[in-house]
Amino acid sequence: MEDQILALTAELAVVKSAAQVTNSMFAEAYYYLTIPLMVIIHAGFLLYEMGQTRVKNVLSSGIKNLLAFAFTIITFYLFGWWFYWALPTFPVTSLTAGMGYMETSGLAYASAIALPWGESAQYMGPNMGDHASGVFWGAFALFAATTASIASGALIERIQTVGFVICAIVLGSFAWVVAAAWGWHADGWLVTEFGFHDFGAAGLVHAVAGFFALGILLNLGPRVGKFNADGSANKISGHNLPLTVTGLMLIIVGFFGFLMACIILPGEGWSWYADGGATIYGTPITLSALAFNVCLAASGGIIGAWVFTRDPFWMMSGCLAGIISVASGLDVYFGSHVIIISIVAGMILKPCADWVEGLGIDDAVGAVTVHGTIGLFGVVVLGVFGSGIPGLGAFAPEDTVAISLYGQIVGAVVMFLLGFVPGYIVSWLVNKAGMLRIPDAVQIKGLDAVKVPAQAYPESMVSAESDSK
Amino acid sequence: MGYFIESFTELHADGAWMDMGMYIGSGASFLGMSVTGWMSLVASVMLVAILVKGNIDEQDHYK
Fold it and tell me: For residue A343, which of A19, A129, A300, A357 is within the disulfide window of CB 3.0 to 4.6 Å?
């Protein structure tokens, strides 16, 4: 009998070990697969941006977008990832960026796991005992690249390539990362002190990127020919609206990957729980909740936009706006909340974009409105509907602050500032160095003819001949 | 800089490879700095140099 118990115990240990390996491999594969899904966001932004560009500038827009992706990811590896783990408590709960309650933050912790040198490097490269760091880093790196792509579209046809890349690095590997540390980490001071909740990153990705773009736009100025002497605006149509609309739809496809990467899976050493998924705050969430709410939000946004416009560009932008408007509370909204909020977001989209244009700001793709304004709208609306929901999960301190309208407004203000201020300052510096705006004569001739040794449509469409080597 | 072992057999038998960096230069240092640190420094310098060169070329195009 005793031998049988021993044998069964040994077999049980083997089964448990095998189950753990399966769980670990599943979790690793889950996050790994969010990465190519998020690359689809970039395929979408590439098409969207190039389609919105005139033929004479189309390849330059593509190059700018590709370089933003590449430089953001590499710099996020070199230092951006470190900021996320180092700054959650700084400067509100710890002036010295000390470790927070969950013991996964602070200068010492970040330096131990998130730098590509020294002892920390073992978590930044091949390591058979670490199935998490790489895939988490990959998902965050794609979030970072998304912020750069969001800003990229607003600036087309007149921003210099290297100047833009510098701005993109500051946005993707610093500004939004600070926002994530403060508002998207269980130790983040916006979360612990104000109950800030932004499950799907409406504020810390979309609003930060949208208002970072606004900061650049103020220093960059409009495209040649956008505004008349009396201040009235001219419509500058892109060369391929079907390309743009298809790109927007691909961004929606990628959003499903983006949002599934926001779930913390169960059963691992780094998990919140052994038996269920959680948000980054440790609050409950399922993929089923996302399936309901993301599909409804995309549809509501299209319908809302259709109320005021019959333009497919703005209807697809409404689709994006619908998802962004509910992103903060995708984990807690009921489907009918989502329908109402996303339709309203779609409805206010075009009037808000017209208002920005009326201020003399040439946002070529409406990024400031779609991502910035609607992002903040989404953050604040959660405060209206979701006040009183616990801000952190089951293992949080007893005095955890709940979600509130006040906390969401504080978060919205912080997100606005974290986008606009760095965007304005870095673009001001780049402008002073003569690296921001492309000379008007070059804009008139066409950027591709001046600096791209290729033609976008050499056989079927009129495209200025390149004299670049 | 090389790799830190010649065979994985002993490492696997000890269960050692379950919690260590298993890449070229792991655990090694040069002139008081980790090899990974040197590699990251070189990569960073390359990025900056490429941006500088890219900007010089771009300004030439606008002349």
Answer: A300
